[in-house]
Write a structure and sequence with these properties.
408 residues, alpha/beta, Alpha-Beta Plaits, 5-stranded antiparallel beta sheet, 12 helices, binds glyoxylic acid, binds manganese (II) ion
Length: 408
C-alpha cells in the first residue's frame, strides 16, 4: 500500500521550495526555488533505485529498468513548476505518486517486464514562458526556434534562462517522441469540486479540455483626467467594455461549454492622473469542443471592432497559445478504471477542465489521467488541498495500473 506519510513528507518538502514573499508556493521554472525542488526530486528518485537524470531543458526522469529492454515503457508524473502564490498539490501530487509507485515496486521486489519511469516536467503552467513547454520540448513540438524566440516578462529568452540555470539547452536527448512508450499516466488533482460533491475517491479522465490564450492590446490616447468624458480615447474603459461583453456572451451563450478568464492586465503609462493610452491583457478560453473556440474567435473579432467604434481606440488580438481538446486513450481509461476498482477506490469517468502535459504526450503516446478530489474545487491558490490519504489512493491505483499494463 502507498504510504500517506511519505507522500505528506514529499509534498511538504516541495511546498517549501518557493520564492520568498507572497502567499503559498511560487516556483517558476529555472529559478533558485525550482533548482532546489528539482534536486529534491532527483534525490528521491535515486533513493528508490531509479536511474535519475535531468535533460538539457530541465525535465527530470527516473528510470526503473524492465526485464525486456525492447518492451515499450510506462511513464508517469506531472509538472514541478507552479503558478504564483499556488498550493503544493497541482502537478506535484502526480510526481509524488510516481515516486511512491517506484518505492512500492522496490520494496515489494517487483521486477517489471517494462521499464517504469517517473517524470517531473518544467514550464507546464505558462507562468514564466508559454505553457506546456517541458512536454512540448520532450515531444519535439518546440525546438531551437522557441529557445531563442520566447521571452519572459523581463525579456530573458528561454535559452538565456536555461544557461543561467546551469543547463546546456542542448536538445539532442530532449525529444522522446519516437521512443516506444506503452502509456503516460498522470495523476493530478481535479481542480474542480465534482469528486468531493459526489463523494468519489478518484476520477478517470476521458477528455482534457482545450485551452486557447490570447494577448489583447487596446491603444488609445493619453490625456489628463480633466478631459471631458466624451472626448477621450481611454484604453482602460474600452478594455473593460470588451472584457465584460465577452464575459456576458460566454456566460449566456456558452454556459457549460466554454469559460473565459482575464488574469493579467497592464495599463500604460500607469499613472493615477493619466488616461491610459494602452492596455495589454490576457484572455484564456477553455472548452471541450473545438467548434466553441472557432465561434468564440469570431465573436472576439466582432467585439474588438465594436470596441474600436465605440471608444475610438484600436484593439488587436494575438493568439498566444492553443492546445486543442485531447481525448485520453480508451484502453488506458479502461485500465485506470479497473486499477482504481482493484485498489478499493470508487471511481468516476470525467473530463478535465484544466490543461495538462498529458495533452502534449498524447501526440506520440497513449495517455491516461487519474484525478484526486480537490477540496472545494480550489486550485492555483494557497487554499488548494487534497487529503494525503486521497493522494495515497491515487498512488495505489497508479501502482495497480502499472502492474496491469506491464502484464499485457
Ligand atoms: C494549468 O493549470 C492550466 O490549465 O492552466
Ligand atoms: Mn496548474
Ligand atoms: Mn497542473
Amino acid at each position: 500500500m502507498a504510504d500517506a506519510k511519505r507522500i505528506q513528507r514529499d509534498l511538504e518538502a516541495l511546498r517549501d521550495f518557493s520564492a520568498p514573499g507572497g502567499e503559498g508556493t511560487t516556483r517558476l521554472s529555472y529559478t533558485p526555488a525550482f533548482r532546489k525542488a528539482a534536486d529534491y526530486v532527483l534525490e528521491q528518485m535515486r533513493a528508490c533505485a531509479l536511474e535519475a537524470r535531468e535533460d538539457g531543458v530541465g525535465n527530470l526522469y527516473g528510470l526503473r529498468r524492465g526485464l525486456d529492454p525492447a518492451a515499450p515503457k510506462i511513464l508517469s508524473g506531472s509538472h514541478l513548476d507552479t503558478v504564483r502564490c499556488s498550493g503544493y498539490f497541482d502537478g506535484q501530487a502526480g510526481i509524488v505518486c510516481a515516486l511512491e509507485v517506484a518505492r512500492m515496486l522496490e520494496e515489494n521486489g517487483v521486477r517489471l517486464r517494462r521499464g517504469f519511469e517517473a517524470v517531473a516536467t518544467v514550464m507546464e503552467e505558462g507562468a514564466r514562458f508559454k505553457n506546456l513547454g517541458g512536454s512540448k520540448l520532450a515531444m519535439g513540438v518546440w525546438g531551437e526556434a522557441e529557445l531563442d524566440g520566447m521571452q519572459d516578462d523581463d525579456g530573458i529568452t528561454l535559452r538565456e534562462a536555461l544557461r543561467a540555470y546551469g543547463l546546456s539547452g542542448n536538445l539532442a536527448c530532449v525529444c522522446r517522441r519516437d521512443e516506444p512508450v506503452r502509456a503516460f499516466l498522470e495523476v493530478h488533482m481535479e481542480q474542480g469540486s465534482r469528486l468531493e460533491r459526489e463523494g468519489i475517491d478518484l476520477g478517470v479522465v476521458e477528455k482534457i479540455f482545450g485551452c486557447r490564450w490570447f494577448t489583447l492590446t487596446v491603444k488609445g490616447v493619453t490625456a489628463h483626467p480633466s478631459t471631458p468624458m466624451d472626448q477621450r480615447r481611454d484604453a482602460a474603459l474600452a478594455s473593460v467594455s470588451l472584457i465584460s461583453h465577452m464575459a456576458r456572451i460566454t456566460a449566456e451563450q456558452y454556459a457549460g461549454r466554454a469559460t473565459l478568464t482575464v488574469g493579467r492586465m497592464s495599463l500604460y503609462p500607469g499613472e493615477i492622473n493619466a488616461i491610459p493610452s494602452r492596455a495589454v491583457f490576457s484572455m484564456d478560453f477553455r472548452s471541450g469542443q473545438e467548434s466553441c473556440f472557432e465561434e468564440l474567435d469570431g465573436i472576439l473579432e466582432r467585439e474588438c471592432r465594436r470596441t474600436e467604434q465605440e471608444y475610438g481606440v484600436q484593439a488587436q488580438c494575438e493568439l498566444y497559445t492553443y492546445t486543442p481538446p485531447t481525448p485520453c486513450a480508451r484502453e488506458i481509461v479502461t485500465a485506470l478504471e479497473a486499477a482504481a476498482e482493484k485498489s478499493g477506490s470508487s471511481a468516476l469517468r470525467m473530463d478535465s477542465g484544466a490543461g495538462h502535459d498529458a495533452m502534449i504526450f498524447a501526440l506520440g503516446w497513449p495517455v491516461g489521467m487519474l484525478f484526486l478530489p480537490s477540496r472545494r474545487g480550489l486550485t492555483h491558490c494557497k487554499e488548494e488541498w487534497t487529503d494525503y490519504e486521497n493522494v495515497a489512493r491515487g498512488a495505489d491505483a497508479l501502482y495497480k495500473a502499472v502492474l496491469a499494463l506491464d502484464r499485457e
